[in-house]
Amino acid sequence: MTATDAPSNLRIEDGVLRVVVATAANATALDVDEITQATAVLREAGSAIGAVLLVGDGANFCAGGNVRAFAAAERRGEYVGEIAGAFHEFVRALDDTPVPVVAAVNGWAAGAGMSIVCLADIAIGGTSTKLRPAYPTIGFTPDGGMSWTLPRIVGASRAREILLTDAILSGDDAVKLGLLSRLVEDDQIQDEALRVARSLAAGPTASYAGIKKLSRSSRTNSLSEQLDAEAASISAAADSPTGREGVDAFVEKRRPDFSSTRSS
């Protein structure tokens, strides 16, 4: 599947790939078909996209997995394992993408929905936004990388408390903890997230890719190794079309035209 073959729910406009992670028709549970399709697009889109926008189509961003489908499965463990496998391929593709990922977090982000929020580079919520792990409530353990991302965002001790107590986090709490970037009015969440995604897609995408690559390497690098990686990265950036355009525009006191630096 290529970016131009993207199914109807997946749209690429102004360089932004819009992914609907949950739909009202599915009671805002994780849409496995959608994220499976999105995984393929993320891996093949290349320069066709400059940002990813994650949204929920309904009252909630994503209320978690489809618990009724879990209950109806003849072999629950096997079924849930298959769902987790598909979800985790999406998580890997989202983590690997070199472009910024923006989430428009309306209503509830629970279970898998909260896991997705933890993966976003920028997550915009509203005054009514709430986050909750939700796994202990049904006797499950986390998926979607939450046991890995949450401790890195809020700290190991606080992450254990949130997960073990199945804490409900308000939008304000989530901003203070670093799970959400900021809050806007509820009716402005998707518009603001789209504005941010479009702005990023029109920006220095090569620079963003370098920033995300450095962020990933910092997970395992020592400080000395990371300093070496930063030196190599900034040197390469200075010689790149994006870096040259940025520096030249600054010196010439004009707005940089980063679109001219991208390969087709």
From TrEMBL:
Species for this entry: Rhodococcus xishaensis
Start and end residues of each stretch annotated as Disordered: 231-264
Protein name, UniProt field: Enoyl-CoA hydratase/isomerase family protein
Coiled coil recorded as keyword: no
CDD domains in the cross-refs: crotonase-like
Pfam families in alphabetical order: ECH_1
Low complexity composition-biased segments: 231-240
SUPFAM superfamilies attached to this UniProt entry: ClpP/crotonase (SSF52096)
Predominant subcellular localization, coarse grouping: other
Taxonomic placement: Bacteria, Bacillati, Actinomycetota, Actinomycetes, Mycobacteriales
Keyword terms: Isomerase, Peroxisome
